[in-house]
Design a protein that fits this description.
alpha+beta, Lipocalin, 12 strands, eight-stranded antiparallel barrel, single chain, 50% strand
Length: 223
């Protein structure tokens, strides 16, 4: 009897997990170059006097996103609160570049790209802030997750919008203020004619991630 009970519990658990998986729709990055963009903006001072803004960008955002299928079918009837979702994102650290090689070298050294080739994010909680006013309006969330930079992981929370586009595409956008020191990212100031260039601790990370619905049947046929 005990073995039958355990078997019943096991089957129920498997069915519950299968049902949960069926309620999630999978999205993968659009492979077209330049369709997505991750950007980091900060400031630096020269000889402690003049301050200017700098930025680096990556045209590559990899990963996988799974969202509640019911939410996508009828977003206007969605209720604020936690949403079933799984998201994992990766950005190749050496793809973060500016128009200046010297700056790129300093940035890649600070990010320890030789030891940690990827910047990674894993969602732990997604909360819908309010129901959209119209079916085509963006969905606005608060996203909480673990961000790993240069081998250091911190929990971060920031607002995210998901916009439905044509042909089963979703654009995920967000902006997060961060501190480089929180990830132990320390830049070695380069020497120039006017003196040392010192980088500020505060940065702003933003992204536009274009994804498309994954066709499981097409993928299975291709294998």
């Amino acid at each position: 009897m005990k073995s039958l009970s355990r078997l019943s519990i096991g089957l129920s658990l498997c069915l519950a997990l299968a049902a949960q998986a069926q309620n999630l729709t999978t999205y993968k990055p659009v492979p077209t170059p330049g369709s997505s963009k991750a950007r980091v903006v900060g400031t630096s001072t020269t000889a402690g006097i003049s301050e200017h803004e700098w930025s680096v960008e990556s045209p590559i955002i990899g990963g996988l996103m799974e969202l509640d299928s019911n939410l996508l079918k009828d977003p206007a009837s969605a209720k604020p609160g936690k949403v079933d979702a799984k998201v994992q994102v990766t950005v190749p650290a050496r793809q973060l570049k500016s128009a200046k090689k010297q700056m790129d070298d300093v940035m890649h050294e600070a990010l320890k790209t030789a030891q940690h080739s990827r910047i990674e994010y894993r969602l732990t909680e997604l909360t819908l802030k309010e129901a959209p006013k119209t079916p085509d309006a963006p969905l606005v969330f608060d996203a909480k997750g673990d961000l790993t930079v240069a081998g250091v992981t911190n929990q971060v929370t920031f607002p995210v919008t998901i916009t439905r586009l044509e042909k089963d595409q979703l654009k995920v956008s967000g902006t997060a203020p961060l501190k480089m020191s929180a990830f132990k990212v320390v830049t070695r100031p380069p020497k120039i004619a006017l003196g040392l260039v010192k980088t500020g601790d505060d940065i702003k990370v933003s992204f536009d991630w274009l994804t498309q619905k994954s066709d499981a049947s097409t993928e299975s046929a291709a294998k």
